[in-house]
Amino acid sequence: MISLETPRKFTGLVAQAHQVAAQMFRPISRKYDRAEHAEPKELLMLASLLDGVNAGGGGGGAGAAGAGRERTSDTGENRNGSNLSTVLGIIELCWGDVGLLLGMPRQGLGNSAIAAVANDEQLARFKGRWAAMAITEPGTGSDSANIRTTARLDGDHYVLNGEKIYVTSGARADLVVVWATLDRNVGRAAIKSFVVEKGTPGFELARLEHKLGIRASDTAAFVLKDVRVPKENLLGTPEVNVEKGFAGVMQTFDNTRPLVAGMAVGLTRACLERTRDLLKGAGVEIDYSKPARLQHAAAAEMLRMEADYEAARLLTLQAAWMADNRQPNSLQASMAKAKAGRTCVDVALKCVELCGVAGYSEDELLEKWARDAKILDIFEGTQQIQLLIIARRLLGKSSAELK
Q1: What residues does 203 pair with on adjacent strands?
Q2: 337-349 pLDDT, tens digit each
């Protein structure tokens, strides 16, 4: 049974992550928001420290690289493992700055994808390297099954051709996990993921995107022209199983969606805490012993937002805990992502509104957080896609039956 308290063995990790967020991320947050595409050099030492924690068995670390499927024996006991510890760390770091967390070396979502589906040999070979994840294509955004990038087996290599856009940390990462189809005629069952080394001939960086938020993190577009990838870099099985369908590569989302939900939870908490302080300075205090209808309108809004925040936080912890305990969590991962993403956007915008001039100006980070929030409701599956997945799971419908 999941506990609603932070496991005692993770309290040190949470405290350290919060210290990093408060003392390192917050002070440079505005600097790298303004200096888009500038690489935050301050993160290099932090990433090295996290590598040391992970190597020493620190329980997964605070970045996205910590999450993955459990490989330990199933004893039937409650397990608080790497997925939960990683989400807890991410919540704290994104209380500091989402873009800086995403721009931290060797802690990318591609690393979580590798951890989710790689075999032991691949885990050892790619250990310690920074991996981005390339799924989205022009004309293929929310529908990942509609991928047009192709992979053709040629001897000991797969030859990849296509185009990828909105690749988080794509320019700075060492590896890119590329989703491609082995056979367009088969449909989603032929979608596989391949680890492509940076510098591979034909793998060309097309551009860096200018963005609304998370400007500390680079977002890249790539063109793939006859990119030769060793067979050993295919994640998962090479067989195309029509009956199993899309399940193989979709395992990745079961791990990464709780992480993105954790990012949203951390940012939501930052907005609420700062708004509470600013309202208190203006003479508006929340009285938790009184009904919302008997309080200042701003206090009533805060009570509503705090309730949404708690719901998002608990759904996120549940999805991560289920992954640690080998329980199917596709439904819960989508529920957490949908709730946390939508809550983050709603709360961030409402906090800007409640704080007036302070919320809208660059004197406070609230306006930046409102811009950062939107991506958390989009990437790793949009709000609409999450609701569609949830409906299919609850109603027992296939993707063909419920579109």
Answers
A1: 224
A2: 999 999 999 999 9
In this prediction the pTM is: 0.93
Enumerate residues 6+ apart whose C-beta is below 8 A from 179: 134, 135, 144, 147, 149, 191, 192, 193, 194, 249
Report the SS3 class of residue 392.
Answer: helix
Q: Is 167 a residue whose pLDDT tops 60? A: yes
Residue 13 belongs to what domain range?
8-126
Residue 243 forms part of a structural domain? no
36 is catalytic: no
Structure tokens at 239: 């067989």
Residues 6+ apart with CB under 8 A from 45: none
Outline where 170-296 has alpha helix (H).
247-281
Could you write out the three-class secondary structure of 192-220? EEEEEECCCCCEEEEEECCCCCCCCCCEE
Contact in structure between 198 and 175 (CB atoms under 8 Å): yes
CB crowding 176-200: b at 16 or more within 10 Å, else e: bbbbbbbeeeebbbbbbbbbbebeb
Among the listed residues 57, 114, 106, the one whose alpha carbon sits nearest the alpha carbon of residue 82: 57
Q: At what angle do helices 82-96 and 11-20 cross, to 10 degrees?
A: 20
One-letter amino acid identity for 225?
Answer: K
What pLDDT is attached to residue 66? 58
Task: Assess whether 195 and 308 both reside in one domain.
Answer: no
Q: Would you say residue 272 has pLDDT above 60? A: yes
Q: Are residues 166 and 118 in the same domain?
A: no
From the list 92, 137, 301, 380, the catalytic residue is 380
Separation of alpha carbons 99 and 104, rounded Å: 9
**Which pair of tokens denotes residue 326?**
């080998």
